[in-house]
Records
---
Amino acid sequence: MFPAQQSRRASTVLATAGLAFASVLVPAAAATAAPAATACDSRTNNTYDKVLGCVTVDGVLEHEEAFQAIADANGGNRAAGTTGYTASVDYVVETLEAAGWSVELDEFPFTFVPPPLLEQLMPTQATYSTGVFTGTGYGEVTGNVIPVDIVLAPPRDPVTSGCEASDFVGLDFSGTADIALIQRGTCEFGVKAINAQTAGAEAVIIFNQGNTELRSGLVTGTLFGINQTPLSIPVVGASFADGEALAAAGSTARVRVDLPESRPQVNVIAELAGRTDGNVVMAGAHLDSVQAGPGINDNGSGSSALLEVAQQIAKVKPENTLRFAWWGAEESGLLGSRAYVAGLDQAGLDEIALYLNFDMVASPNYIFMVYDGDESGFPAPVVVPEGSVQIEDFFESFYTSRGIPYDDAEFSGRSDYQAFIQNGIPAGGLFTGAEVVKSPEQAAIWGGTAGQQYDPCYHLACDTIDNISLEALDVNTDAIAAAVLTYAYSTETVNGVVGQQVPGNFVLPAPAGPQGTTGSGGGDEVDGVE
């Protein structure tokens, strides 16, 4: 348990940089009533009172519902390379242009990998969650499932399935459509798959070992290691339970892995020109989902919150240029943001004062987290650019002003801020959690369910409109709006460029300090070793 810190930083009185505001940043119960929607449409929201009165969770939900409808109409997802992503781009562009933003589409190369298929045909019919192994071959095979030295009875340890060529002796792989069913354990995935291919298999299913909870779910990984040659046959993964079902006598199945294809994608880049040349405030959220589901929390939440803020701040004449980005192909390896930053020359990099990232801000079993720029909760595995601590201070002061407990999220670079910080650009952001399990201590502070993931539908089909916390979405949209308005007027605390104070004379309280056990921003990668 990370101890709460009541005063880990000096006072944050930031009036000279345009960051000062306390009278509006109070608990929601004391906030003034929101103006009529027509008033918000017509006025310039250039004060904290105005912008926070007009940014509403209902407004964010309109965008979330639009993304859900897009996914529903496009195979259940909005993944890069699909019609669902294209429709999401069109929706964001139309919304921004209607609000008065200048919008461009920033194209980048993208290789689309169609989702693989694993379907059992006999003795029962079922379609199983699956994934491909790096180094797989391609094709579709429908045929007999042949178990290879598998161990289904506990303790299932050790398992040497497929590790030796002798494991295949006595098994009939002489047909034209034989599928080897191999269990994880002992040796590399690539060794198992090469042995199956050499024995005559036309496809391979590698299912998890099943000896512990962590080795029971869907398994994928790489076929490279000792083996350095891509396979010529398709290789897919399965959970232990699905592998057990596929091991039934007389089992037949269909395995399909389609060839990747080039499908260039786009980022949506929107701007409001500022009065000061060469000082750009960027904020971004990834627009794509995974192929498994619609991605309404990951990352419809960040995309929708940023879109609502863009609408409500569109009539402001900022001191600094505002540039918002809706990134493509984040789920495929941060491809859109990486390509965008790589395409900037040094002058383009130098003009970016800071970057704010919003990836998953409404997790249903949330805790409020701020990227840990000062490394008080986590040693960062990356270099933290100067100025990032001040961004962290801002968000923590915002939460403190609302009387909301918060904690640190590892400054890991595992989202679209990676390319920015690698180029020395200060960054910060908000996060409400993904696959990490909430502790009893955290449940006592933020509510919710201990022992359950912050987002139980992370990267799953159930990440729908029902998978978001309206409370977290409401609070974090206000935090985003306050930060954007602040830095639209001045980035002095971050990069030393003097600007103007936001109209009104308000003072932020000092951050109260992380409260509770620190949260973690990440999950584990499955490598190619047993």
---
Amino acid sequence: MKVLKVNQPASGGIAMGSAYLYQPKERKIADYRVSSEEADKEIERFEAAVLKAAEELSVLAGENPIFAAHLEMVKDVTLQEAVTGKIKGEGNNAEKAVVLACEELILLFEAMEDAYMKERAADIKDIRERLLSQLTGIVNKPVSCGKDSILIAPDLTPSDTSSLDLNKIRGLITRDGGVTSHVAILAKSLSLPALVGVKEILSEVADGDYLILDGYNGEILINPTEEEKQKYHELIKKHKEAEQRIKAEESLSSITLDGREVHLCANVGNIEDIKKAVTSHIDGIGLFRSEFLYLGSSHFPTEEEQFEAYKEAAVTCSREITIRTLDIGGDKTLPYYPMDKEENPFLGFRAIRISLQEKELFKIQLRAILRASAFGKIRILFPMIISLEELRAAKAAVRECMEALNTADISYDETIQTGVMIETPASVLCAEELAKEADFFSIGTNDLTQYLLAVDRGNSKIAALYNSFHPAVIRSIRHVTESAHKYGKKAGMCGEFAGNEKATELLIGLGLDELSMTASLISGVRYRIRRMKYEAARKLAEEAVNKATVSEIMELL
């Protein structure tokens, strides 16, 4: 028996069955030059393909919100202008133009450091294949395998995953992808055990090998003994009983045994994410990544375009919504906003620094958010703050926008709260001063861990050093929560760490008032909170901040 391990399981559960290796066939497309006279005909072919693809996606969107997002993307002018430009301006045929235009967008997303943003490249790949199917008339056959199979593939598109026969497939393993990939998201929604980013899987497993996929501990057992099989059969039975208990409590409040309530919220990037999240009994949206409005457009979104999006968000979710102002730069760039090449982009011109320099663009977004606040409970979150001066400048911009709306007699929530995203060492060290003037804190552990530890998450050679259980991170979280509470303010967390069930008791003990995460993780975290005592968690946290190493903290937990 051989065992493979991965650091971050994508979807919990245990699957047992035979390995089925799926290798999608590479699509061959026509590649020829077209004259200016022929270009119009090629554009007509492309536009017809878009209409047919939209019809398909309209049907699929009713079954899964991922395809609702694809429907918006396939109709978006950004993609259409890029393709027509490749045809008319560069003389490519329709198929080649689709490939080239999509490749540019894929590279844009794949270059981003943020895991959620990086995985959006899969959306573009799926749309590309759908458009090429319409242009060529050749449709890839759905995945077909035997009963009780564990599907293994280099990667799977949303369309591949949605076509799986769940009566036959027990689990998924992919070589590529991350925990925010569509494979992971869909697997969670289908309660299908899954591991992604298992680099050695295709070389270590042969077709027909018997596998045990442990999605809880991130392990793959290859050709296990009968004793191991029996052990896992018992584990499956126990986990099913536990899942039923968790499901029975998913609509209850997140209150500890000694009465401390913690708000559990969802991180989202668009309206479709919100529609899906509200079905998970959330207490609100803890992080709305507004940059998706910008990344999915061919121009800076107008005030009206942003207002409509934020208004729809407020109407869709009747609970509190925290909208983060534009967070580009670093790993997120806009094709219509040229930026100078920087040696250290994560330390460069990004987030609030861009907003405070591009003041009019900032005010357009702020006015749109303020107008939308008349339709629901909205908060404004400023990213990448490092000083009290920046917070004051951002709040001054909000006041200027309020005055403009007052003059125009336009309604907004005059009590709207403005908060600071704690994601830099400077904001941690200045937390007490910031807490005096901010209405709330939201800790972004993804960047905070990276900056505190000086570890580039994208560098595979040092990726193992990136760990939010590091004493420096844990002590920083405690300092931030204590600073917020000293001035009667709330402190939440919206990084990936918030959804880590191994950290739940520790985070509650550190004093966090709100945890915001991928919606599918909320029920498990809620279940844990309802079985812990805050006083015991507080004592555990006090011990943890005095530990000197990650291993000591993990041993304590």
---
Amino acid sequence: MSSSKVAHSMEKRLSDPHGTNAVLNKASSLRELGLTREAVQEYGKLLKTGCHPGKIIPGLVDCLSKTNSPSNLIERIEELIRQYKLDRARLSQIRYYVAMEMEKMGFQDLALDLYRAAAKTDPGNKGVKQKIDQIVSRMAPSSRYDYLLNRGLITQGQLQEALSVAKRVKKSVEFILMKQFRLKKEDIGKSLSLFYGCPFKEFDPEAPVPVELLGNLKKPFLLHDLWVPLSWSKDGVEILIDDPWDLRKTGLIRGLTKTKKINFCVGIREDIQKFISLFFDAKAEKATQDMIAELDLIPDIAFDEGDEEDAGMAEEVDETSSQVVRLVDQVIVTALRKNASDIHIEPSPITNRTTIRFRLDGVCQEYMQVPNSMARGVLSRLKIMAGIDIAERRLPQDGKIKFRRKGIPPLDLRLATLPTAGGHEDAVLRLLASAGALKLDEMGLSERNLNVMKRILVKPYGLILAVGPTGSGKTTTLHSALNHINNPGLKIWTAEDPVEITQPGLRQVEVKPKIGLDFATVMRAFLRADPDVIMIGEMRDNETASIGIEASLTGHLVFSTLHTNNASETITRLLDMGLNPLNFADALLGVLAQRLIRKLCTNCRKKYHPSREEFEALVAEYGEEAFRSRTIKYGPKLILSRPSGCEACSGTGYKGRMAIHELLEGTAAIKRLIKKEAVTEEIFAQGVRDGMTTLKQDGIIKVLSGLTDIAEVRRVCIE
């Protein structure tokens, strides 16, 4: 060999130390001969060398495309990559060039996935990011259903029909498309994924519960906002959401998860709801088991007690068990700390579980579940504490519990038990926490109502009534009125069932019907005990009402309550009970009807400017003619509030309650109508002329003040 040939050979080896050109030429020749399998092997060898991917990938993709679908083709290349354990830069390069080939072949979605994988492997590669932006801009659909429309899977008319049906049945459009129009979930998922640029995730009943992510989240809040955390890894938190472009939700998610590494995936509403129910049912069961373990309750207890026959054979826990004693104490203490008004204990023959619920701000919320095998022991324990017959399970019973434990204030509870289906008993506990009376100015009365109340409270004699359904705050209002006039110069007697609120200066008697100490008996006794002011817990019958009116006409100021719907109806109801209209008219000073509504949570309520239509709807409900006397006008400065949901309010958007009122003053005109035994409508009309606002009107004023929303007012008011 000549010296020039030797030099040329050495130069060639130095420029191509691994012989990649020779392998590349061999692979190209095999591809031209149609020997694709052999060609793929040669191209595969080049992946681990320094050969530029731009020279390898086109030929490799061409060979694989002859025998593989595009998705399988990518899988084959990924298999070759895994064999050689390439560094991140090389891996990103190869994926980038494979993506370019997919793009040329028209598979934009596959190309986008590969570009994103390349960007994840090599985040500093600006060229990859540019490619992603280019494809996204080309692919970006204008609607989340474009993919379905463009492929003829559904028409515009069918989509509009699905939207109409979805609104009517309160389901998602996607659900209607699957059920009524028989679309596949995969196609709907593809459309959502392309629109939002993130993966689609459907419900998986085997999904592990992300307990560490659910710690500070509440089920009602997630169901309202329609998102749920699915998992957590070094790459970040995976969140399933119905709308990944909703900035309010995504901002809230980032704040609650306290991480910037969030990977969103999109899902349909019903699947998200299923995930939430799956996770929280599992979480509730685990929490209950943990609580039982913490209380040293039966460690081998099982929630799944089988069918009815097997469940009946489950070993029951009696009331003397220390585990049951501690569970009952735990429930009562927790209810007190949560400011619950009632505890409901509800065994179910269907689920074989006993649900314990708390009533918070007037709405029941589930606290925990225990097996039915514990229910009888829990009920017997409560009966022993209340001093009622432990053996009687066929009839309703009621009693009172004095609960005294270290670390909490003394607490009285009223227990009511009722026999229910399946041979079980329900129990309801009303918490009667001792509390002082509120000041009259703190009762939320409007300016007119407050002035009228202060005027009639200083009268030397007469009758003042507080009316409304059970749990509407009537007793609280009367004690506030008593507090306003309470001074050493007055002798104030009260008869209550039970005594819930105490204050200095009051002499309070608790009625006990079982021994004949009813309201009428106590009232007659009061008249012999030199009273100035008398409060009678409730006018349940003609005798009590008659004695109350006689007391008010003989120089005593009398307060009482009645279960009626509004102020004007109260007068008709008392007349129907057989009261003397003349005496009643002379005695009446005023009737205050009230309801309790939930206040918007001040921590998370959202302020907004209502539309003119929304404002006009409020005006129509208030009464257009009556609203003209108000100074509130529609304009850019008009701001209302709506519920949102946060940890402080357990995701409900509401925290605390306030009263709305309807005060009918016993004016001369009203007294004349009572003497004539006028109908309710006439009394109501005269009350309005005297300045009375209805319950709903008072509620709407509080809505316009941003304290609550119209949904709460409608919940407790009919008209």
---
Amino acid sequence: MPEEAFHALPYLREILIFLVVAVLVVPLFGRLKVSPILGFLLAGLVIGPFGFRIISDAEEVGRFAELGVVFLLFKVGLELSLDRLIQMRRFVFGMGSLQVLLTGLAVSGVALLWGNGTAASIVIGFALALSSTAIVVRLLVEGNAIATTHGRASFSVLLFQDLAVVPILLLVSLLGGAGEGSLWGSIAMALGRAALAVAVIALIGRYVLRSLFRFVAGARRPEVFMAMTLLTVLVTAVGTAYAGLSMALGAFLAGLMLAGTEFRHQIESDIAPFEGLLLGLFFISVGMGINLFVIVPQLPLIAPSVLGLMIIKAVFIICIARAFGLSFANATRSGILLSQAGEFAFVIFAAAIIAPTAILPTETAQFMTVVAAISMMLSPALPFLAERAGRVIEARGAARAQDDSDFSGLNGHVIIAGFGRVGQTVAKVLEVEGIPYVGVDTDTQLVGQCRAAGESAFFGDGTRADILDRLGIGQAGAVLITMNDTHAAGRTLSEIRRNWPDVPVFVRARDGAHREELQLLGATHIVPETLEASLQLSGRVLEAMGTPSEAVNVIIEQFRENEYADLADIIESAPPSADEPPAPRN
């Protein structure tokens, strides 16, 4: 292609390179079961000005790539609601403000000990106190954790961090030598513009935006509806940018206003390609900002700096989260997820260099930029570490709680081995009837959630005789085995029959073959889950075909009294459907 074509259409060359990277990176890292974020970061490092210089102007690409964060925050706003955000205000303004203040002061103190000046240390501390909204939210969405306790807490902190960017930039102006009068005037003007922008977006979203979308949707033209969506995102983003706030915050507010409308799902579908591609471009731009020539000679300092930063942030966030009522496991998850630096650190460092009186030397700013970028490159590994650490903490807590529990006073209770959905449903029925129960499961997160809800659940392996003995099986009225693992269910039943042959044992069977195995092992009563579902569906069909409900109940109960024998023969002899492979037979 002639060189003139690239000049005629700005960014054409960069767009072509980016699309090639996207087409290669996403499928490749998907096969490796690794987050594509890491792939985009590495690709940016390779093609950037400090790699093979395939793209030399990283700054221009970075400005365009900021739209990825804008669309991501718009999507997050769509998934929330104003009511939920109001409920989160304690975490946003309480936990978020303490995190920025305390972490910023702690990192500033470390920077001061390293020989930086007071002003430079303050800028470094508060710039690195911010985390990456784009990366963390993306990781939470990919891990289906945005609605979890630690996901909501993490997002609340990120939201306040976006709000804190403006005061931090004003602080840079103050430290850079801005006049006293002009400083306070600038602060008042900036806060006024920010409040006005948020109020205007809220009013337009509440009284105008829904009507506009109804008008556009009435045209029944998909391209016009998409244009309206893009216009909403960009106008709100530009509006908050003019007010001195981040563009991402404006897009988030717009998404929040549309979250409760009937257009939410169509809008999410329309922006998905833009959000994914532009966010990938953002991560590429982050990778392009890493200067290998700076990293290599200073690697002995950079590595401990990155590690120290992430440890300091994680420790402070864990302590603050605990103070706001999060469990130690969830506080640890949030602390690890938010331990990296954020994209706004680059903006703050750039402002500190060009201030009226430069606060940071260029070498120091470049060093801190590399530290921030490397910490962001490590982010794809953080969800795994966070979840692993959380599970270990929950397992130890559950074990301690179990050690402290005394089951000697229980008599005639029900032991539920496998406390998943079926086990919890049975537990609710027992609780209504006033029958004591004890649930046991090896899923630490599940046990932690159930205990937090006040249920009698404990961590342990139900296949082990010593665990069952601690749960008071000798005095139990019955044992219910509802494990998903058929082999574990069989081992549990065998262990019970070997040590406590007289205890009634009720077992959930996966299929006919599993039912026969459980009968041989000595189960008191077996409920095949597929057959029970078939009975329920059969009853609904009979009612729909005109059979009186009383007759339907009699028919269903007849099958139950016969232990499903006739229906089992019918189902076992029926050929499998086209969508269902034949069940393996022993």
